[in-house]
Amino acid sequence: MRPRRFRAMGPLTGRIRVPGDKSISHRSIMLGALALGETRVSGLLEGEDVLSTAGAMRAMGASVVREDNGDWVIHGVGVGGLLQPQAALDMGNSGTSTRLLMGLVASHAITATFVGDASLSKRPMGRVIEPLSLMGAEFTPSPGANGSQTLPLMMRGAAPAVPITYRLPVASAQVKSAVLLAGLNTPGITTVIEPIPTRDHSERMLKGFGARLEVEREADGTRIIRLHGEAELTGRRITVPGDPSSAAFFVVAALIVPGSDLVIENVGLNPTRAALFDVLRAMGGHIEELDRREVGGEPVADLHVRHSALTGIAVDPAVVPSMVDEFPILFVAAALAKGRTVTTGLEELRVKESDRLAVMHAALELAGARVTETEDGLMIDGTGGEPLPGTPEGAAIATHLDHRIAMSLAVAGLASKGGVEVDDTRPIATSFPVFESLLDGLASGTARA
Ligand SMILES: O=C(O)C1=C[C@@H](OP(=O)(O)O)[C@@H](O)[C@H](O)C1
Ligand SMILES: C=C(OP(=O)(O)O)C(=O)O
Which segments constitute the Enolpyruvate transferase domain (predicted)? Predict the structure, then answer.
């Protein structure tokens, strides 16, 4: 464990840049590993989750190499060409690696065992086991596994796999992507019906690599995604935009720390990801988009954020999929806002790296905030801008191997009287390895002015 007390510091000013998007980084490596020829990725997130994906793709035959200039170069095996891994695939803390790679393995004639850390080993895999079994894959729980739907799991892919039409029972980009990736090496057309739109990086990137994929939108917003199987993918150049889910921590920090005036450069603003910024604006946050442009086929802007007086709101549950990872940090903003913030429709937060409703409830209360937990959300009565008391001496926030809990409470510490003690900062490296150095740079005034 690596504990740390995060304390109030001066205003956040200057310009920073956050690392590459985690979702796009995973997919760059996976699709590059299935393509023919070279894929060159700049701005790849070098977080532990993405490195788990890189390790697995190497174990299945792809060459994945980091060059001295920071670019990552991938030489793929071609769709259908994945090799039998010689050892269990260690997915660490990463749900995205696990579920998407299960999709890839499902339509190859190979057997793979997936293992993960204590957090990942509790997360539900039934949601991918169901559609991938319909496609022909077979799953065997390892002896001693806790039930049949959690890691460790052994799976045997099917070749040829069976194309399916699958309606997503849960709004999940990971499940959608698992089925689409399995469809790549499946004869015929694999169809995913998505009643509630989720992040669309897989669709954008599959097309970019040359797959035939069509998206139809129905009047009620349902998306029907059809992927033509036995695809041929061709290597390409990818520039990964900055991760909005990482930028979120510094956006909220600048909003709640008096005097702050911060520019966060190169933030991905794909509409299926960016709802947090709209919610914070509706709460009174000054967040301005500068120089809107396209990077790697994704909308990007620099965000100019200034300290703001926030007001609590009721968050529309319709936006949940487009900010699903941002609720822990939104809860921190709510704890500093004037009045009550009400969130609903957040059942999925209970099956992330931790139960993010229960853990944020306990964490914010320990830091002195007023929080009520419901079945599907939190209600938070904010301080109206007054700093939180902070965690008492000798008590620490339990982060439960969840990077977003650790970073959210670190930000809460910046707006506290006595500081917030986080029990373990190590999980931060899964998605945002330079989080603490960026924060410390801002505190010491070394961020670029
Ligand atoms: O597809 C992806 O890259 C992701 C999808 C989301 O998960 P779900 O699909 O389980 O909601 C998100 O929470 C995760 O951080 C990344
Ligand atoms: C839920 C997350 O990631 P994953 O599902 O890939 O572990 C996250 O990064 O917040």
Answer: 8-437
CA-to-CA separations, 317 to 124, 194, 198, 256, in angstroms, rounded: 22, 17, 13, 24
CATH code of the domain containing 307: 3.65.10.10
pLDDT digits (tens, 9 = 90+) for 331-383: 999 999 999 999 999 999 999 999 999 999 999 999 999 999 999 999 999 99
Per-residue pLDDT reduced to its tens digit, 60-114: 999 999 999 999 999 999 999 999 999 999 999 999 999 999 999 999 999 999 9
Query: Is the residue at 448 inside a domain?
Result: no
Residue 439: give the domain boundaries: 4-20+241-443
Q: Of 229, 263, 290, which residue is a domain's last? A: 229
Q: Is 148 annotated as a binding residue?
A: no
Residue nearest to atom 4 of ligand 2 (CA): 95
Active site residue 325: yes
431 Cα nearest atom in ligand 2: 9
Q: Does the structure's ipTM exceed the value 0.90?
A: yes
- Per-residue pLDDT tens for 399-439? 999 999 999 999 999 999 999 999 999 999 999 999 999 99
**Ligand 1 centroid from CA 338, angstroms:** 31
Ligand 2 centre distance from Cα of residue 176 (Å): 15
pLDDT in tens, 328-341: 999 999 999 999 99
Residues 169 and 64 in one domain: yes
Residue with tokens 């009287």: 417
% helix, strand, coil for the chain, step of 5: 35, 25, 40
* Residue 95 shares a structural domain with residue 116: yes
Domain assignment present for residue 248? The answer is yes
CA distances for 126 relative to 100, 129, 290, 360, angstroms? 13, 5, 42, 26
Q: Ligand 2 centre and the CA of 97: distance in Å?
A: 9
DSSP H helical segments within 257-393, as ranges? 275-282, 327-336, 356-366
pLDDT for 206-225, tens place per residue? 999 999 999 999 999 999 99
Q: Are residues 136 and 201 in the same domain?
A: yes
